[in-house]
Give the backbone structure.
Amino acid sequence: DLKVKVGKGGIVLTWSRPTHYVDGKRLQDLAGFVIFRKEISSACPDCPVPYRERATILVEDLEKFIKKRKFRFMDRELTPQATYSYRVFSRLLDGSLSNPSNDAGVTWRP
């Protein structure tokens, strides 16, 4: 459920905490999230562009009982009039990554 929007000073990403693995079992070993971004060229919007790692967000659950349900990241390293697309992956304690979230994009017009 990744969503992006233009905010004051950057692009704001929001998403929900996953609660279960793909097989339906309860997720117990979430370590964080990895955000990937690609810049889409206005001259060639259909050209293939790879996603590149943009940031890592660590999950720090208070006492392991209070679990944060929503996460937020603001991307401030932007080029005016550029269009960006984002994906978020969950990272488990063993370092493995989940399947990607949906793609979400927006054009930065400060």
User: Anything to note?
Assistant: Strands lie at 3-7, 10-16, 30-40, 52-58, 70-75, 83-92, 104-107. The two ends are 25 Å apart (CA to CA). Residues 32 and 58 are 4 Å apart (CA to CA).
